[in-house]
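Researcher: Re-running this chain for the archive, since the previous output was lost when a drive failed. Same request as before.
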Amino acid sequence: MESNKTDETRPAESSGDAIATSAGKCLLAISDQERSMFLPEDLFQELKQTVGEIKHVQPQTLSDVAWPQLLQEFGPDVVIGAWSTKPIPEDIPVESGPLKYYCGLTGSVRRKIARSLIERGLHVTNWGTSISRTIAESALMMILGCLRRTSHWHEVMHHERGWHKHPENEGQFSLFERRVGIRGFGRISRELVLLLKPFNVKVSTFSSVPESLLREYDVSRASSMEDLFSGNDIIVELAALTDRTRHSVTEELLRMIPQDGVFVNVGRGAVVDEAALARVAREGRVRIALDVYEKEPLPKDSPLRGLNRAILMPHQAGPTPDRMRDSGALAVANVRQFLAGNPLEGVVDLQGYDQMT
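Model: Regenerated structure tokens:
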């Protein structure tokens, strides 16, 4: 799935209280399967009470001609979209037409919304930080998997029909009392710190966030990337992808991670020099766990495949199907806020749009 996994508040679960009906027409342009995941019946009913009129259409039933006709004839103020939604026509009259807001239930909106529409004033949001805690959960799982060598023992037990020979050769480590370095300190990083609390770890971050926020989470600031990588047993990469951060995780930095240290990337694949990462991991210096890659799907001949000390995930650290409702809850709240003229969460501005995959 595509996602904009840069850090930025998780929406609260729907209270189920009755919502006063607001004026406004909403076009729910998602498949039945997407509706059942993102907007189960309680959230769907809340959405219906939030807007004046709602129309649900399944995008796969609409031709390329019928879709713009529907937008013109129904005249929605809000379109709620997901993966199956057809792109909003670039020539739609945002300035004078009724459509003012595209509420995305998923991550990247680049295949649905042209940049010019945002330039012309279309409000756009995505699932924002509603997915932060599930990404943090996945990062924790990947850290533990590296320390406990789950990928290695999977191969030994299933494919080699083996067993351990000597406990001292198992190469397993605990997370308790370890040093964890996090690059970036947005919402995902903060959720991860909360999940790490029971392990009594020391956390530092390389980030420009205010000192007050670090004190709130009991996190220290690394003075440099070199300080972050050399001073921690576990590194979690969560930096946004910019021209400055592209390939900024170099072989030199990776070799600063202590022997048998862990490198986890659940942020952006292109911030890492993948060839260098594969070399360092192949030498057995570090254990790695990756959910994102510079090129996706990961090529079959990628040097990252087949490594003994690597956990590879196919870009699935985001919400599991049972937690897609978190995004739906944020969407319902955003539609209510939009119709009331209030600020939105998970806003995709031009800068955020340009950073999306």
